[in-house]
Amino acid sequence: MAAATKLSESRPQDWLQAVFAILTELDVRQVAIVPDAGHSRLIRLCEADPKKRVVTLTTEEEGVALLAGAWLGGEKGVLLIQSSGVGNCINMLSLMQTCQLPLLMLVTMRGDWGEFNPWQVPMGQGTEPALEAMGVIVRRADEPHLVAPAVLGAANLAFNTSRAVAVLIGQSVLGAKNFNELAKPR
User: Full-prediction pTM beyond 0.85?
Assistant: First the structure.
């Protein structure tokens, strides 16, 4: 598998490019998003690929339904969201569990390593247990070099066994925001 070879050769700062290569190699064509700074580069790569359809959602749970429909129509997809949006998906995740449909979720984390915003902490801490309670298999990647292998494994698990699988990409990979950065004039 070419993606596995690329993973061992990729540098930590290339994890987003490696994830994009995995999605491309696995023929993931539907990309459901709620815009998020942590996914911004991956979103731009997907938007530039004429074989991928990027759908901006109003709310995260729409992505679960969209990707169920994509799978039933013969296409693979991925849901790119932030941990604060996981709570919006909880009820809809029962669709994937009950109908035995695959779901690949890449979740950028807030409310953990270096978080500046206290409002992000409760859902950030509740993301993994909430997903697991809904039958989603959860993998964490808290170092850049672990992201692409986690995505490859999660994608294969989801698409080969018709399971919902989420990769939680830690804030330590993305970098923590702070109030000073947000206060800078643009």
Answer: yes
